[in-house]
Amino acid sequence: MNSKSSNQESHWLPCEDGAIQSAAESVRALRAVEQRRRFLKATVTGSVCLAGAAFAGWSLFASNDKRRAVRGNRNYPGGISCAEVIRLMPEYVAQSLTNENLTNSIAVHLADCKHCRGIHHSMTHTA
């Protein structure tokens, strides 16, 4: 051996008994903690995404159901849909509807809905 390599070897000290095994166990423990952390992060992220998608779907369908059910909703002026107004329009124009609440709902709807008001106008102003 040359003198340079013998100097390098003299810097190394022998390990205490069990030091390498202890270091390996520490590294394994840190890896296990890191794996659990990654697993929990992925699980929480997936759960949040799933919950968000479920809530978005629920709110979309719930708002459609509410729109159909709630009277006076902006999408259904007068609490009656355009399809229902159009279906009842001939009776409304002929003033043969017997339900006063329905007649009032149609009147409110026509005051607010340009589309149905146009149909009403075309039915009442024909020769």
UniProtKB/TrEMBL annotation:
Which protein is depicted? Zinc-finger domain-containing protein
Q: Which UniProt keywords apply?
A: Membrane, Transmembrane, Transmembrane helix
Q: Which domain of life is it from?
A: Bacteria
- Presence of the UniProt keyword Membrane in the record: yes
TM ranges? 39-61
Origin organism lineage: Bacteria, Pseudomonadati, Planctomycetota, Planctomycetia, Pirellulales
